[in-house]
Amino acid sequence: MGFDWSAAAGTLEVTTALERLDLLADPVADVVRALGDDRVGVTEIDPELADTAAFCEEYGSPLERSANCVVVAGKRSGEVRYAACVVLATTRADVNGVVKRRLDVRKASFAPMDEAVSLTGMEHGGITPFGLPDTWPILIDPRVAEAGAVVVGSGLRRSKIITPADVLTERPGAELIEDLAR
């Protein structure tokens, strides 16, 4: 095994995602396969417990090791600009401050659920920094990078990825953004 997932896993058994690509949404599996990094782990969960608070409570995974990935949209000159924001579950993304300025839009807001699901090919409640459209920046709060092992979505509600934070910060399009979360 290439990585100790236990700090984030709680009571869950984790295996390398390369061995369980069936637990990942198709675009996520494509990225994980291409990465070939056995430190990226995956675990199956009850899909009814995919939302962060319920997941952490049921499986004993620390909230401060759980990173939420939200899709944000804003318009400029009729063009919709998207970004993925990755923040710890103990914080909230500063959508109408930091994200709005980074996207250079008048107003930014969470993308409508149907739109986020359609554009990512992932399920609501499972959106992850892996497998997003190449043109989107992945904005990451520095606290995520400092967390060590973090839990993120798998693209599906029935599983979670547990990964070293550096795998996220090294994704193409990833940017560490100071004050992204409050």
Short description:
This protein has seven helices and nine strands; from the N terminus they run αβαβαββαβαβαββαβ.
User: Based on CA inertia axes, which overall geometry fits?
Assistant: globular
The CATH class turns out to be: Alpha Beta
User: What is the β-strand count?
Assistant: 9
* Average pLDDT for all residues: 95
Question: Main β-sheet: number of strands, strand sense, barrel status?
Answer: 5 strands, mixed
And the CATH topology?
YbaK protein
Name of the CATH homologous superfamily? YbaK/aminoacyl-tRNA synthetase-associated domain
Low-confidence stretches: none
Helix content estimate: 25-40%
How large a portion of the residues is in β-strands, by DSSP E?
25-35%
Cα-to-Cα separation, first versus last residue:
35 Å
Roughly how many Å is the radius of gyration?
Answer: 15 Å
**Name given to the CATH architecture:** Alpha-Beta Complex
The DSSP helix count reads 7
From the helix content, strand content and strand pairing, which structural class follows? Answer: alpha+beta
- Walk across the major sheet and give the strand order: 5-3-4-6-9
